[in-house]
Amino acid sequence: MNIAFAQDDVVLTAHFDFVAILRAEQHLIARFHRSDVWSYGHDLGPHQSLSDLRSRGDENSARRAPFTFWSAQVHKHSVVEHLNRKLLAVGAYALSESVSGLRRGHATTVPSPSVTDDFAPRSLRLLTSDGLSLEAELVIPDDARAAVVLCHPHPQQGGTMTSLVTSELFRSLPSSGLAVLRFNFRGVGTSEGEHEFGVGEALDIVAAIDTMSAECPDLPLFLSGWSFGADTSLSLLDSRIAAWLACAPPLRVLPLETLTAAAGSDPRPKLLIVPEHDQFRNPDSAREATESWLNTEVVAVAGADHFFVGRTHKVAALIVATIDAYEAP
Predict the structure, then answer these.
(1) Which residue of 6, 35, 128, 245 could cross-link 224, Cys pair, CB 3.0 to 4.6 Å?
(2) How far is CA 285 from CA 22, 248, 252, 267, 282, in A?
(3) Where a domain ends, among 43, 69, 103?
(4) Residue 228, Cα to own-chain centre: how many angstroms?
(5) Would you give the distance in Å from CA 165 to the centre of its chain?
(6) What predicted TM-score, i.e. pTM, was given to this entire model?
(7) What is the CATH number of the domain that holds 137?
(8) pLDDT, tens digit, for every residue of 235-293?
(9) CA gap 206, 214 in Å, rounded
(10) Do the domain assignments include residue 128?
(11) Is residue 111 domain-resident?
């Protein structure tokens, strides 16, 4: 088994058969932690080397997809593009931690450039109004025209500022002239404090806004979050926010009435980017829940589930387009 990495794809080859996972975030593909990789006649267990997997010509098997990734944390089947569009990935969250485990011990047989960031982040600490120090990273491109604060998914579900969607936005948005700040909520990573179920976390977001406003005082500031981070950001009213850009908001981390009384009742723009197959709040449900909200647009991302695997570029494009169209009052 040989593995070849390129910027936007991962190719798995066994003898003369091959499977391609197209447009996946290659540097975020996991080590198959707590996963099982199935191939015709063979099983590959957790942390077992991919080199132990052997193909028996299953490429054309009608019984099931050539490779199936199984995870102990199964939320919902998530379709990933295959050459014949039949590769099935299950438990996408478990596949979003790190590529480092795959890279070690496996030869790259197809030359590909190293994946690097064009903008080196600066590490810093945020100070909350209740005295906590939070870890954060900031990128400000020379041509910055707007600023974005990113809020990560649920801390109790393994969410951090390096989780999939948050990481991809932090990596990609600066190339569109956007300054970006990401941070770990209280109790996550080296951030002080303990999880406070979305209530104390609002103070963390204010600390991030304070820092971004000081670093980029003349730029409009957009508040974006994914999942838990989306709901928490929608609970916050701050005069410095130009618009809310919520990715897969469950609209239930905090009571819906709380979100409606906050961002929902504010006339400033709100974009809700909702996956077509979201496990917690699909587009129709999001539209119904926010029917009374002012200046709110719900945009569905076709084919995506809550984790946007392979579709984070679409999320980034929607965010950039919304910022492009923004007109200051």
Answers:
(1) 245
(2) 30, 12, 12, 22, 5
(3) 103
(4) 11
(5) 1
(6) 0.69
(7) 3.40.50.1820
(8) 999 999 999 999 999 999 999 999 999 999 999 999 999 999 999 999 999 999 999 99
(9) 12
(10) yes
(11) no
